[in-house]
């Protein structure tokens, strides 16, 4: 077969484009917070380059040096396109990103200019899919997706709340339908419970409107849970978009105080192996209804009758999976994210190498140094029966802000680890007071 001049030019352009991209794969990451930072910590020894789109000196940029970082917002289409032009793949560490531009990049690609002034179209695969991100961004649509999916996913009853003039009537309707208390939630943009308002009685309706009323809202029936559980799932898919596997990490118990995650226990305390197994199966069936590759967190409520209810999904590494760095070191949630995005092998089973782990979030206290006693304790503890792993995120301390975490791993039971962990737990609780 003869190569036409056109073919030759295309081949040359392709080679040059590959040179621009470099030999090691580059993952462009929207968002450079602590999740991105820990992703970089997993990518660094693998020689995988992470190009981060976020502010200068963000936690993730501090952990990974490259000339491909982009300064700006992960909500800015122009900056996202710039990141795409420098990356072989795109991924996220936060779901609140501009999905219109991601959809456009998937469909039409971005133009890369070559040395000779010509351009080639570059289409970095995007994982997880913008479809998943767009759905998850709107908690009401996310709930509707689960309610109407074939998989029969148990969720709390919910209803959309009218905005503007009709908000009050709509909230009264929710109170009639669900009784008190019920949860009023912002549909979009919330994290760490910041868009939630617990409506405990008629007296709370006005404060609720004052707190959230300008945002699109929905109401959710109160879930009378005895515990909260979470399961991380690795979702794989071929390049045609067909699901090829869902592998679940162990179920963990998550403790939320004022709607923010403060502690994680692996395994969950006083929960049977059967329930943990059900939680993993449920998490896999939830994640199978979504699109794209990567790790996904499924947050759940465990009810008194031992049944499970799905709260929400995070389409990325998650606070409840930090423990995997030390408990499943060969395939932490961060390494799994890299493997999934790049379509590298994923283990069939994820078995912890320690029988027990406790993750404690370090939240900023009232004073900038409120957490120093705790970090000092973490740095100075060496114990034959408990390993102490301190992670600070390079963030300025502000009240309630996640600035680090400590993972404690134990070699016998969670019970014993919990006893050993007592001084740490005490200090963590003290910061919050
Ligand atoms: P994040 O994304 O940081 O997990 P978020 O802002 O998206 O948090 P949710 O996960 O919706 O918030 O809720 C935070 C916490 O509030 C839950 O973990 C749970 O403790 C409580 N909560 C949420 N919904 C309900 C409900 N329907 N009934 C009872 N408690 C709830
Ligand atoms: Mg959330
Ligand atoms: Mg949540």
UniProtKB/TrEMBL annotation:
Residues 145-342 form the ATP-grasp domain. In the C-terminal section; belongs to the AIR carboxylase family. Class I subfamily. The chain holds residues 18 to 450 of 744 of the full protein. Pathway: Purine metabolism; IMP biosynthesis via de novo pathway; 5-amino-1-(5-phospho-D-ribosyl)imidazole-4-carboxylate from 5-amino-1-(5-phospho-D-ribosyl)imidazole (carboxylase route): step 1/1. It catalyses: 5-amino-1-(5-phospho-D-ribosyl)imidazole-4-carboxylate + H(+) = 5-amino-1-(5-phospho-beta-D-ribosyl)imidazole + CO2. Its EC number is 4.1.1.21. Keywords: ATP-binding, Decarboxylase, Lyase, Nucleotide-binding, Purine biosynthesis. This is Phosphoribosylaminoimidazole carboxylase. Signal peptide: none annotated. It is an enzyme of class 4 (lyase). One of its GO terms (molecular function) is metal ion binding. GO terms for biological process: 'de novo' IMP biosynthetic process.
